[in-house]
Structure formats: structure tokens, C-alpha cells
Amino acid sequence: MASGAGLRTPRHPPRSVTLSEGGRTLLDWETGTADFTFGLQHRVVNGTDVLAFWGELDAWADQELTPRVTALLDQAGHQVVADLRKVTFLDAGGLRLLVRIRQYVAAGQGTLWLVPGSPRNWRVLRITRLDRTFTIPACPPYTGGRPGARTGHH
Questions:
Q1: Among the four residues 23, 51, 130, 143, which has the most C-beta atoms within 10 Å?
Q2: What pLDDT is recorded for position 28?
Q3: Cβ neighbours of residue 143 closer than 8 Å, sequence gap 6 or more
């Protein structure tokens, strides 16, 4: 893996930039990460920015994705969705990333909707009581999870 010397994360990454070393793709800004166990895809749906995470959201993901998420949120509208339906592992590092996103969106007078997805993600949110902190939709576009979920505060 690259040492990182001389590498700078652009404040507003271009739509398609690939970071390679020795013929191996290390990072592709458009599709997320290549060799990592996590990733992020961004799209805009009806004026709402959707941050769709996948894989393991842990301390490494927090460290690697924070610059990308910050750059996306700098350009995002006031409505943001963090979609965790493809997240297979969530720990304190991943929660730290989600809390940062919530704080950033709230500072811009926006709303963050969190879609937890799996029962495992719900459990982590309940144990940490963050299910009461995030705005979690109980109807579409949310699918799965516990029925009749309460909406948290943002």
C-alpha cells in the first residue's frame, strides 16, 4: 500500500479520479474504494444526496472515507440520506463517521436520514442509543429492519 507521502486529498474531488500504484488500483473516487473492505457511492435522487455505504464501517473506513464524505457534503443540498443497507459490519469507528455526517449536515441547517438496513446495524444503533439521535424513516425509501421504527431527532 502507498505510504501516502505526497498524496493530498482534493477538497472537491473530480467526478472520476483513480489512484494507482504498481498497476494496482488503490482508490477510485467515482465508485468508492477498490481493495478496501468498505466503500461509498454517491448519487442524487430527486434533489436528495444519497451516501450509500457498503462493507465494513470501522475505524479504517472512518479514516479513509471522511475526506471523501466531507468533500461531498460541501456540495450537497439540505437533504442527505446515509444508506447502510449494504453495510456488513458497524462498530465505533463507523458510528463516529455517521455522527460526523449528522453534525455536518445539521450545521448547514439540513436533515440527515439514516437507513440502517440490517438487524445487526439496528442492534448497534439501539445499544448505543443512537437510534434516538438519527432521523430514521419508518416507510419508503426505507425497506427492512424493525417495523414501526420511531423517528429520531436531527
A1: 51
A2: 55
A3: 85
